[in-house]
Amino acid sequence: FKVTVVSTSPIDGQKPGTSGLRKKVKVFKQPNYLENFVQATFNALTPEKVKGATLVVSGDGRYYSKDAVQIIIKMAAANGVRRVWVGKNTLMSTPAVSAVIRERSGADGSKATGAFILTASHNPGGPTEDFGIKYNMENGGPAPESITDKIYENTKTIKEYPIAEDLPNVDISAVGVTSFEGPEGKFDVEVFDSADEYVKLMKSIFDFESIRKLLSSPKFTFCYDALHGVAGAYAHRIFVEELGAQESALLNCVPKEDFGGGHPDPNLTYAKELVARMGLGKSDTGGEPPEFGAAADGDADRNMILGKRFFVTPSDSVAIIAANAIEAIPYFCSGLKGVARSMPTSAALDVVAKSLNLKFFEVPTGWKFFGNLMDAGMCSVCGEESFGTGSDHIREKDGIWAVLAWMSILAHKNKDSIDGDTKLVTVEDIVRQHWATYGRHYYTRYDYENVDAGKAKELMEHLVKLQSSIPEVNKIVKGIRSDVANVSSADEFEYKDPVDGSISKHQGIRYLFEDGSRLVFRLSGTGSEGATIRLYIEQYEKDASKIGRESQEALSPLVEIALKLSKMDEFTGRSAPTVIT
Ligand code: VG1
Ligand code: CO
């Protein structure tokens, strides 16, 4: 192939957000839009790192992925990349990409040094919906801010990019290697099935035999909803073939370019079918719900954990996994190096860390902040309130891992009861037992999606301004309700990475109450249009007689305060959030 240099000019708005660049497909389809971003990334990595490299390019299979893969292959070839590894039909979950970077060796011993992940995660897909791209580094984790900042700077000055225009499109539906000869030598594209790599890794972490035993028990029933995302490409292999689950346990496990028209976000609002099956929806499907249910998002890094008629908050989920990991999961049998959560995630994990005497870290929102801690051997298990849970087996959150972690805990707790006549220890039992031991963190998140960006900014500015006088804040708070604790402090969260010393400012507005309650306000960094305001509300209850309340009811005083303090209705014109989780 030949290399052509195409001249281009900067395009506005290519700043990577919490997890890469996400825009409507029609934006990505503009001339040079994808090309500029890809070249800005290559330039940020520097030519020395790019030349001769092995790159992974794949994603959740959403609409436009097939076109994007071919464009990136041609640009990689022209930039002197030696090899590109592509998942069959462009499919590779975000955790699988991370695993492939860390674990896979090519036939000649080559190792990948990074990846373009093509996903907009939990955002809908299709011609009128979202596409996205992000770069992951050699450790398998998302590029740190130092790199994403450089990428953005490069998008503002880009003038040209090289591309191998005459390189034929590679057939990505068939496994195999295609070799080309370019001006700088050989260039290979290898199409493979990443499920092999991923299954191998999962088997090295969990005791599949004990999970298999759990799944074979008539007492234990299970349902998994991939919401037509890429998790479906792994679910059959793992749950049915390896662990012996029934085919009928899998819902929406055929990956689709438009996720079947749905919103591939595993929460109580969007995972409707699963929610109904688990006996949690308004429309009862009839019949006895399964004992355990789970769902994934588009790129399979998120998870929702459900019991029969029971919802496990993601903040509780990571705390429960941490509390049980050493006993229930072979990978952790020699102990946990530490645990971490993102700032808006509830403090349930903090209580476990304290009681088990574990190192603990609170980082800004987004998985990229956990990577340094893990690389430095300071953190084994971490999680976010946004249905993200994972460990240092890779450098992304991992939806299927979380399901296997819960299955391991269930298998462990039911070791003796699975064959006998004793009752199954259920998901709900495990959570209630956890609350009884550690106390309960009532938690909810209100999302106001696609509000006017200017108004959202004003709301945030209003909240920051209020923080300058705590007595004034307390006057307002007490004027709204007298039955809540005093606000003890208020600030904008700032993080200093304990490993590299880098500082991230303005990571969310916090109001902290004397009784440990918290209100947090953030603007989302993953939307593709307008602004999304996230409001996180949390209250800790140690009193065992008060841990069984309905969470919206328990939190209603704090909700009222949050909405009035922020003047939510006034700024957004919304009387209710789009999504409550
Ligand atoms: C959201 C979540 C955050 C998560 C991020 C990426 O970000 O709040 O916790 O890490 O999505 O998840 P934001 O900026 O919109 O609040 V995913 O599944 O998109 O990779
Ligand atoms: Co995701």
TrEMBL record:
Keywords: Carbohydrate metabolism, Glucose metabolism, Isomerase, Magnesium, Metal-binding, Phosphoprotein. GO terms for biological process: glucose metabolic process. Its cofactor is Mg(2+). The keyword Membrane does not apply. GO terms for cellular component: cytosol. PROSITE patterns: PGM_PMM. It catalyses: O-phospho-L-seryl-[protein] + alpha-D-glucose 1-phosphate = alpha-D-glucose 1,6-bisphosphate + L-seryl-[protein]; alpha-D-glucose 1,6-bisphosphate + L-seryl-[protein] = O-phospho-L-seryl-[protein] + alpha-D-glucose 6-phosphate; alpha-D-glucose 1-phosphate = alpha-D-glucose 6-phosphate. The keyword Lipid metabolism does not apply. It holds the Pfam family PGM1_C_vert_fung. Catalyzes the reversible isomerization of alpha-D-glucose 1-phosphate to alpha-D-glucose 6-phosphate. The mechanism proceeds via the intermediate compound alpha-D-glucose 1,6-bisphosphate. This enzyme participates in both the breakdown and synthesis of glucose. This is phosphoglucomutase (alpha-D-glucose-1,6-bisphosphate-dependent).
